[in-house]
Design a protein that fits this description.
Blueprint: E1 5-6, E2 23-24, H1 27-38, E3 42-47, E4 52-55, E5 62-65, E6 69-74, E7 80-87, H2 104-130, E8 133-137, H3 139-142
Parallel strand pairs: 7-8
Antiparallel strand pairs: 1-2, 3-6, 4-5, 6-7
């Protein structure tokens, strides 16, 4: 999933931010950007346009979390819903299974999960305060076969 580049939207008026600075950090993010750009029901979207403060369980310090996307979606009945979307592999979207042997890899996975969980809890509170919805999209959400 590690592939990055610049994205040039076909519909730049839908983008909330500087269209010359749209960067994807994975092919999955690029796929989502294309979807947002091409889909009529998406009336506006932005990429890493704001930060949410969170406390990391790894170092107990405050950090800033930049969610992947902010999206305004127009529903069938005309209502507009705001989503904050994070793109993550399914393997990083839940706590790792407890291991009998504690390896470096397992410790890394536990720490990654702890940080992700802290970010996402902060995002939930941030979104609830604004009447927005926070979602984590994985390869299952995107219809990508592993």
């Amino acid at each position: 999933m590690a592939y990055s580049g610049k994205f040039s939207p076909k519909n730049p008026s839908k983008y909330m931010g500087d269209v010359t600075k749209i960067t994807y950090r994975s092919l999955w993010e690029r796929r989502v950007m294309r979807y947002f750009d091409d889909t009529d029901g998406i009336i506006a979207w932005g990429s890493e346009e704001f930060a949410i403060p969170y406390r990391s369980p790894v170092d107990d310090r405050l950090h800033r979390y930049f969610p992947d996307f902010l999206v305004k979606v127009k529903g069938r009945s005309g209502e507009i819903k705001t989503l904050v979307v994070e793109i993550k592999p399914l393997s990083q979207s839940s706590a790792p299974a407890v291991q009998k042997k504690i390896t470096k890899r397992y410790i890394t996975e536990v720490m990654r999960w702890g940080v992700n969980e802290a970010k996402w809890k902060a995002a939930e509170v941030f979104c609830t305060d604004r009447k927005w919805e926070f979602q984590v999209w994985t390869e299952k959400t995107l219809g990508i076969k592993g």
